[in-house]
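quick one before i forget lol
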Amino acid sequence: MDTTTAPHRAIKSFVLRQGRVTKAQEEALTNLWPVFGIEPSDTPLDFPSLFGRVAPVTLEIGFGNGDSLAQMAAAAPERDFIGIEVHTPGVGHLLKLIGDQGLQNVRVMNTDAVEILKQRIPAHSLDRVQLFFPDPWHKKKHHKRRILQLPFVSLLASRLQTGGVFHMATDWENYAEYMAEVMQTSPDFVNLASEPPYSPRPDTRPLTKFENRGLKLGHGVWDLLYQKN
């Protein structure tokens, strides 16, 4: 193969470990994806058509199993939520929660968030972006895989409305420090903390079981909230 003409392979911020899809998740994927799932396409999303109304839109990148996203959607019916997750079992679990709880303000994507931001999220359309507990890639040689890089921050800024909020959380102190350093270099955001760089966890972000267990063991969690200028 001629390496001089080989296409550039983008560095991924995630490793695809699909795991086992349970029967309940499989049923949710079969029955509820056609209603609440967003199919792959290059067409920009039309939020009012997608949700059937005009409302503030929150985008969550990497929602895991979807427990906290479902809680947030249930607690804020006046808002609409789009969740993006590459791991299919998590997508199935969130769809099951949507069905069980009768949630109408959540839509789900099973794909790479960076490509969606580039291709399908209209400029200045989001009210809020959430990035909770992303893979810290704690080894220094893997830091280039961290999703939070300045180009990614600039992309988010272009998709957020003026006054929109970017909310991050991590349980790795080194990654929290790194997040603050990257955000400090962005001209597009201002830190909302009264004592920067970290903010208290807002009531709008539910505690996960994993996080609650860690807190009881004395592990730290750091929230960072920034507003688009």
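fyi The first helix runs from residue 23 to 31.
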